[in-house]
Amino acid sequence: MRKQSIIRVYILLALFFFLGLVFKRKRKENDLNVPAFDVSFGDEFGNGMGPREFSYDQLATATKNFTDEEKLGEGGFGAVYKGFMRDSNTNVAVKRSSSRSEQGIKEYASEVKIISQLRHKNLVKLIGWSHEKELLLAYEFMPSGSLDSHLFNGRSLLPSEIRYKIVHGLASALFYLHEEGDFCVLHRDIKASNIMLDSTFNAKLGDFGLARLVDHEKGSQTTTLAGTRGYIAPECHRTGKASKESDVYSFGIVALEIACGRRSIERRYDEDQASLVDWVWKAHGDQMLLVVVDKKLSTNFNVKEMECLLLVGLWCAHPSPNMRPSIRQAIQVLNFEASLPNLPNKMPTPSYDDIPNTSIIQTSELGSLSITIPR
Known about the structure:
This protein has 375 residues and is α+β, with helices and mostly antiparallel strands. The protein folds into two domains: 35-140, Phosphorylase Kinase, domain 1, CATH 3.30.200.20; 147-365, Orthogonal Bundle (Transferase(Phosphotransferase), domain 1). The protein has helices spanning 2-30, 35-45, 56-62, 102-115, 147-151, 160-180, 234-239, 244-260, 271-274, 276-285, 303-316, 327-334; strands at 52-53, 71-75, 78-85, 90-97, 126-130, 136-140, 184-186, 195-197, 203-205, 212-214, 220-222, 241-243. The protein is globular. It is a single-pass type I membrane protein.
């Protein structure tokens, strides 16, 4: 009799355990559709001016059920597919998240909330979103693809004037994010693959999954290390602190990649050329700066512009954050409205002193900044 009672207890415990697992799994699935998730987006999308909510079926139909034939690319976040929206007669790029983890949902929510508040010609426009069955984001379609596909994968040879135009566009986007809004937006993942190009090769910065909003007065945020190897500012490895200066560092790396036509880290090169920053800085110290220019350009480039681009790239990628320019200062040099930076011949040893408050420019101090491309 006692044995039967013990068996009943074990059966009940097993039943409760099973029901607990079912409930937990159900709750995790419902997290993709919790009302709070919608509330956190609601007002931003209710005015009809911003992105719209799509059903899963709408985006699946647009991409032919996410067929491989429509796949534009794939990264750590998941895959991107080309889609066609019949109701608006437009092409879109649909990002399909590969993760339903807490971190994946957090990045998805961050991207929707932040980019929906941004309006700038050099930012990829968010068309809509869906988290009905999967985490999906629909963006304006960029016919010329990503910058890295041209620089590193041979999609086309970008002429030097187009490269300079792309750097200006990226700088304009970063100035808007850092200085022109109610909050400073730290992108935290500026890199060639996150820079998209439209049909006339205008640059548009995308992928705001790692972006964070901070007060202009603070200008930085302590967090876990984020970004992509080769583009992360050296002080971030030590402090985990993202800042305007760390975004500027990533911008500098991209500027050097555009000028040199190679990635920031290339193991196939000799040790003295494996790091792009080290290699360019050595060429600068040897008074042979232009030797690093992309060989595919031959001599078909504007020497003045290319020298400016390389020096601004080094300045922005300075090892010490308090020696980097603001993005506004970088733009003034790129526009030839200010003199070229006076950089030491040898790359300095990093200094991680606190960034002075003077490096944080208040929004009220800035007017609109026009960006002209020298001919």
